[in-house]
Amino acid sequence: MKKLILAGILAFFACQANAGFVQGVTGEDMVGMEVTATFADGSSETATWGAVAPGAGGAFGLIPWGVLLDGDSFGDFDPVTGDLFGGFLMMNFYDFDMVSLSFNALAAGFVFDTAYFDASANGSGPGRELVSSNADVFAVYSDNYMDELFGTMTLLSSSQVVVASGEMQVFLTDTDQISVPAPAGFAMIALALMGMRIARKSSK
C-alpha cells in the first residue's frame, strides 16, 4: 500500500513538472472563476465568471455589483498620468461600500502571475503586480500554486473601501491558464497502474 501511495505522489509531481501556462488570457476565457464581494453592512455574494462577448467576460451579482474584463488581463498603464488601459472594471451599485473582493481562480484552472519579470523561469512569462485606480487598494494572495503564481487574490483597502457605493474602479493584474499536456496525463495513468501492480504483488 505504501508503494501505491508513493506511485501516486510521483504521478502528482510528474503532472506538476509538465504543467504549462497559457498567456494572453482574456475576459472571455476565465469561465468558472468565482468572485466574492463583501460589503460594509456585512452582506456578501459570490458570482461565477462567464463569457459575455468575444474577448470579454465578467461576474455579476444580484446585490447589485459586478466585475468586467474586456480584452487581455495583462492590460497597461501610463506611469506618468496613472491612467489604466484594458483593466478589470469593478462596479458597485449597492447602497453600501464594497470592503473586499476575492477571486478564486485556481478552481477554474487559472492563476495570478504576480511578478513582472519571469524570474522563476517556470514558463508563465511576465506577470504584473496589482495596479489599481484606487491607491488605497492592495492585494492579498493565497493558494500558492508555484513560485510567484497564486490561485486566489483578495482585494482589500487601507480605508476599508475597495469600491464606494455607486462608483466604479479599475485594476490591472495578470492571469495565466494552467495547461497540462497530454503526456503528463498519460504519465499519471501509467504510474498509477504501476503502483497498483506493485501493491498486488506485495499483498501476495
List its salient traits.
204 residues, alpha+beta, 2 domains, eight-stranded antiparallel beta sheet, six-stranded antiparallel beta sheet, 2 helices, 16 strands, 19% helix, disordered N terminus, transmembrane, transmembrane helix, PEP-CTERM protein-sorting domain-containing protein, membrane
In summary, what is this structure?
The chain crosses the membrane at residues 178-199. Helix content is 19%, strand content 40%. It is α+β, with helices and mostly antiparallel strands.
Written account of the structure:
Helices cover 19% and strands 40% of the residues. By secondary structure, it is of the alpha+beta class. Strands 1, 2, 3, 10, 11, 13, 14 and 16 form an 8-stranded antiparallel β-sheet that branches. Strands 4-5-6-9-15-12 form a 6-stranded antiparallel β-sheet, with no helix packed on it. Strands 7-8 form a two-stranded antiparallel sheet. The two termini are 12 Å apart. The radius of gyration is 20 Å and the shape is globular.
